[in-house]
TrEMBL record:
Sites where the protein binds NADP(+): 11-14, 39-40, 164-165, 319
Binding site for substrate: 161, 239
Function recorded in the entry: Catalyzes the NADPH-dependent formation of L-aspartate-semialdehyde (L-ASA) by the reductive dephosphorylation of L-aspartyl-4-phosphate.
Gene Ontology process terms (BP): 'de novo' L-methionine biosynthetic process; diaminopimelate biosynthetic process; isoleucine biosynthetic process; lysine biosynthetic process via diaminopimelate; threonine biosynthetic process
Quaternary data: Homodimer.
UniProt KW keywords: Amino-acid biosynthesis, Diaminopimelate biosynthesis, Lysine biosynthesis, Methionine biosynthesis, NADP, Oxidoreductase, Threonine biosynthesis
Enzyme class: oxidoreductase
Pathway connected to this protein: Amino-acid biosynthesis; L-threonine biosynthesis; L-threonine from L-aspartate: step 2/5; Amino-acid biosynthesis; L-methionine biosynthesis via de novo pathway; L-homoserine from L-aspartate: step 2/3; Amino-acid biosynthesis; L-lysine biosynthesis via DAP pathway; (S)-tetrahydrodipicolinate from L-aspartate: step 2/4
Semialdehyde dehydrogenase NAD-binding domain mapped to chain residues: 4-119
Protein's organism: Pelagibacterium lacus
Entries under Pfam families matching the protein: Semialdhyde_dh, Semialdhyde_dhC
Annotated protein name in UniProt: Aspartate-semialdehyde dehydrogenase
C-alpha cells in the first residue's frame, strides 16, 4: 500500500520539481493531489505520464492524506501547516516559516536525519518538518563529513545564487533583460533591485539591522541548528545571472589539523556528494553541469594558508533539487524507510 501525497504550490518552480522527483524516484504514491490557491484551480500539472488538475487548498479535506509537501511561501505555510498537521498529515515545508521554531525539526537527511526518530516519538508534535534554505542545504551536506573529521570552528561563505531561487518571475526578468540588452532596451528592475543581466547583485532578501541580509542570516542560523551551534558563520549572498544552480566559495577553519587529501577522501565517502577536483582546466563543476542532478558537487579543495587549520573549497548544487524539492522528498523517504509514517486510511 502506498501513500496519499498532496503538494501545496504544485504549479511553482519547486512544486513542479517535486512532482518530477516523486515520479523519478518511484516514491510509493497511491494518490497524488496537486493543491493551489483558488486562482490556479484547474491548472494542469504532470505527474509521471498523468496530467492532474489542481484542486483548491481552501476546501480540501486532509483526512487520509499522509504527506503534504508545501512550497507556496511563508504566509501560506504559517496559516496552513498547523491545521494540516493537526489533521494528522505530515507536513514537509519548504518555506522559512517554521525553520527556526524550536519544536520543528529542520532536516537534511545526510546531516541530521536521525533527529526524526525522537521527533516522531513525541505525542505533542506539530507534524511539521522544515526544509532548509537552498544555499544552506548544499553547504551543510559538504560540511558534515569535514566537521566529523576535524571539527569546524568557523565558516566564511560567499554564494553565487541563481535567479530560480527567486521564482519564475525572477527567471523571466533575467531572460527579458538579457534579450533586451541586444536591442538596446533599458533594463527595467522588477524582482531585482538592480539590473541582473550581465551583472551580479550582492543582495538577497531583506536587510537586517546588523548589515547582513536575511538570506545571509538564514545560512548562519540553519547551519547552527542542523550541524553545530558552536560553529561561527559569516555569509555574503550574491545573485548572479545563472538560471539554475547555486555555487558557493567556502573557507573553513578547524579545531584539528586536516589536509586537502583527507578532506577529499572523506567527501568522496559521504552520501549525497560527488567530488570533481582535478587541478587542471575544467577540472571542477559549474552550475550548468549541476542542473538537473541530485548531487552536491565539491571542487577546488585546497589549503587555506591564512589560518592554522584551514581549507577552501567550491560547492555547487541544483538549488531547485537538493536545495528544495529533492531534500523535501528525501525527508519523506527517510520517514518511510525508518518506519515513522504509515499510510493512513481516510476516516
Ligand atoms: C534564493 N535562497 O535563492 C533563496 C530562495 O528561504 O527558502 C529560497 C528562500 C527560502 O533566493
Amino acid at each position: 500500500m502506498g501513500y496519499k501525497v498532496a503538494i501545496v504550490g504544485a504549479t511553482g518552480n519547486v512544486g513542479r520539481e517535486m512532482l518530477e522527483i516523486l515520479a523519478e524516484r518511484n516514491f510509493p504514491v497511491d494518490e497524488l493531489v496537486p493543491l493551489a490557491s483558488s486562482r490556479s484551480v484547474g491548472r494542469e500539472v504532470s505527474f509521471g505520464d498523468r496530467v492532474l488538475k489542481c484542486r483548491n487548498l481552501e476546501d480540501y479535506d486532509f483526512a487520509g492524506t499522509d504527506f503534504v509537501l508545501m512550497s507556496a511561501g511563508g504566509d501560506i505555510s504559517k496559516q496552513w501547516a498547523p491545521r494540516i498537521g493537526a489533521a494528522g498529515a505530515m507536513v514537509i515545508d519548504n518555506s522559512s516559516a517554521w525553520r527556526y521554531h524550536e519544536d520543528v525539526p529542520l532536516i537534511v537527511p545526510e546531516v541530521n536525519g536521525h533527529v526524526l526518530d525522537a521527533y516522531m516519538g513525541r505525542t505533542n508534535r506539530k507534524n511539521i518538518i522544515a526544509n532548509p534554505n537552498c544555499s544552506t542545504a548544499q553547504l551543510v551536506v559538504a560540511l558534515k563529513p569535514l566537521h566529523d573529521l576535524a571539527t569546524i570552528t568557523r565558516v566564511v561563505v560567499s554564494t553565487y545564487q541563481s535567479v530560480s531561487g527567486g521564482g519564475k518571475e525572477a527567471m523571466d526578468e533575467l531572460w527579458d533583460q538579457t534579450k533586451g540588452i541586444f536591442v538596446n532596451d533599458q533594463p527595467t528592475p522588477g524582482k531585482f533591485t538592480k539590473q541582473i543581466a550581465f551583472n551580479v547583485i550582492p543582495h538577497i532578501d531583506a536587510f537586517m539591522e546588523d548589515g547582513y541580509t536575511k538570506e545571509e542570516w538564514k545560512v548562519l542560523a540553519e547551519t547552527k541548528k542542523m550541524l553545530d551551534p558552536r560553529i561561527k558563520v559569516s555569509c555574503t549572498a550574491v545573485r548572479v545571472p545563472v538560471f539554475v544552480g547555486h555555487s558557493e566559495a567556502v573557507n573553513l577553519e578547524f579545531a584539528n589539523p586536516i589536509t586537502p587529501d583527507e578532506a577529499r577522501d572523506a567527501l568522496r565517502e559521504a552520501p549525497g556528494i560527488v567530488v570533481v577536483d582535478k587541478r587542471e582546466d575544467g577540472g571542477y563543476i559549474t552550475p550548468v553541469e549541476a542542473k538537473g542532478e541530485d548531487a552536491t558537487y565539491v571542487s577546488r579543495i585546497r589549503e587555506d594558508v591564512t589560518v592554522e587549520n584551514g581549507l577552501a573549497m567550491w560547492v555547487v548544487s541544483d538549488n531547485l533539487r537538493k536545495g528544495a524539492a529533492l531534500n523535501t522528498i528525501q525527508i519523506a523517504e527517510t520517514l518511510v524507510a525508518r518506519g515513522l509514517v504509515q499510510p493512513r486510511v481516510a476516516a
